[in-house]
Amino acid sequence: MATKPLTQTTGRRKSAVSRVRLRPGSGNVTVNGRAFNEYFPTAIHRNNATEALRITSTLQTYDLDVDIVGGGSAGQSGAMRLAVARSLGAGSNASSSAEARRTSRPRCAQEGKQEVRSQEGAQGAAVHQALNRLVVAQWCWAGWMS
Fold it and tell me: Cβ distance 118 to 128 under 8 Å?
């Protein structure tokens, strides 16, 4: 039976949601029950997902058990990166040098921008935004004239 997790955090990016359980161990990473290198075959996504561990030099110190739902591979690796960074920040046994390295790159915040969806009856998201601007401009112009 696996040991109790040190921390359990979530991360979100685009439409992907990641849950990371951090345990003391030897650096084993499993994603949705599969090996890390099998789940993220490209080096870019692997480096993105483990960036917080590499910055704090704790890549071989903790075992990660990750569950990811939704999104594509880029969104999933970004969600995992945010969850791992939050896990490292939530751990009470972080050393002061690891704390200094982690805070030198402030990346522990969820992305604020959201995808603009196309609206029913409109040709696309950009058309809908343009129509909204036109309606607001007409309303402002009419209010200013009267």
Answer: yes
Q: What is the pTM of this model?
A: 0.67
For 75-113, the pLDDT digits (tens) are 999 999 999 998 888 754 545 555 555 554 545 666 666
Q: For residue 142, give the DSSP letter.
A: H
Fold classification of 7-104 (topology level): Ribosomal Protein S5; domain 2 (3.30.230)
Q: Report the alpha-carbon distance of residue 109 to residue 145 in Å, rounded.
A: 44
The domains of the chain are located at 7-104, 119-146
Tokens of 39: 């789940």
For 50, half-sphere exposure in the C-beta direction (CA atoms, 13 angstrom radius) is 23
Determine the length of the chain.
Answer: 146
CA atoms of 54 and 127, how far apart (whole Å): 43
